[in-house]
Amino acid sequence: MSYNIIDLTVNEKQLESAVERAREKEIVIPTFAEMKDPSKVPAKIKEKLASVGLWDVDPLNLFRITWKNEPVKDGGLYDGVNFVELPESLTGVKARIFALVGKWFPTGAHKVGATFGCLAPRLVTGQFDPVNQRAVWPSTGNYCRGGAYNAQLLGCESIAILPEGMSRERFEWLKKVAGEVIATPGSESNVKEIFDKTWELRKTRDDVVIFNQFDEMGNPLWHYVVTGNAIEEMLEQVMGKDDRYFGCAFTTGSAGTIACGDYMKELFPASKIAASEALQCPTLLWNGWGAHRIEGIGDKHVPWVHNVKNTDMIIDVDDEDSMAWIRLFNEPAGKDYLKKKGVPEDLVDSLDLVGISGAANIISCIKMAKYYELTEKDVLVTVLTDSMELYNSRLAEMEEEFGPYGEIDAAVDFHQHIKGLSVDYMQELSYRDRKRVHDLKYYTWVEQQGKSMEELDAQWYDAENYWGEIHGMADKIDEKIREFNDKTGLLK
């Protein structure tokens, strides 16, 4: 059965408008294949990138939507997969933990990939008119930043929607990029308030198109194809013949990134996928709710795009642990203490690559390693979605609240929030456990957001075909992108 989940029907009139806008602004659109393998990027694009900064609002930076950017802020090209290994001296576990680094994407976060996966298919088919419509990006932070940025690069106007309690850096940067910024009540876990605002816009404005990361299948598709491939290449570099890829763990947020676990499970069928969330908002674990401080993940619902049937474990992370990590990793006293405890100096000096949700992802891997009693032959993978470049205001706020950070603080944080991590608040999922989590989608998506029961059931009872159709869409989208680029004539 075909589900037509990512619609590639062409609207010829609006496509003409999109092509003309692209020609006018000299916009060439990259393919998924080029984001996986930047060696396929046209030479004339690479030549021009040499003079473009990583965060510049320049259409050329569409070709930096990849895990393989050279780790520099200006003029870089491509230099293999960006990743770090977190050794036992830091994690306290024997398992080898690797994390892809999101800092070296434009905007400093990997969400530019997810937003590209949502916007590009509609743009190159004419389903979105960049001249007469505005792209709406509902998010708890990085997604609307990435969406507003990509919209600028693709010649589109945008509206960013995010909770008022997000970090100051997010709002300050968005004001420079998004045409309009709307702050909704609450913080990370107040997702319904964001959805309510999108319905208000739908009903009151005829020039908006909603790109909701929680139900747009272009989000998990991008991660399945591009992030999954990056992990595969990383493992080819780091794994020995006796090593075993055990699995991956990700805070679900919109549940886009976790789709790379589906890709990895096809390569390693015995591997496991863990979905983690904030303990303060235990929706997956206990059908619970609450507020938390792990910026970058939104809760109180199960995202429509989450392939729950392929998820093996739930891990709840205490936000106290994540917040302690960012002080330990970034305060001078914390860095000095880590070096004294034998953490390699070059790693300590690069721990600002770990943002708040990145810390939660590593914590999830540590808890997973302890639960399964993994050894030095086992490999776990996660991602650092962004870096501390987006959260320096949080460090200032914590210093104001708790005072200066000294060696005793560092010792407490190291032993309590790293070495003291336990296997509490975790659950291996049986068939019925997975079905319980999947069934939670009904309340948000069928009752509130207008999805059908038929498609909800298809995600579960016809899961292989349903998710397989999504995973197979990249080549079809690439064909439409090439046709679009041919129409503009900019690559001739």
TrEMBL record:
Keywords from the UniProt entry:
Pyridoxal phosphate
Q: Which Gene3D superfamilies match?
A: 3.40.50.1100
| Database matches in InterPro entries | Cys_Synth/Cystath_Beta-Synth, TrpB-like_PALP, TrpB-like_PALP_sf
Q: Describe the location of the Tryptophan synthase beta chain-like PALP domain by residue ranges.
A: 106-330
- Source organism per UniProt: Dethiosulfovibrio marinus
> Any transmembrane segments, and where?
none
What cofactor is this protein dependent on?
Answer: pyridoxal 5'-phosphate
Q: Which domain of life is it from?
A: Bacteria
What is the protein's given name? Pyridoxal-phosphate dependent enzyme
Source species taxonomy: Bacteria, Thermotogati, Synergistota, Synergistia, Synergistales
Q: Which Pfam families match?
A: PALP
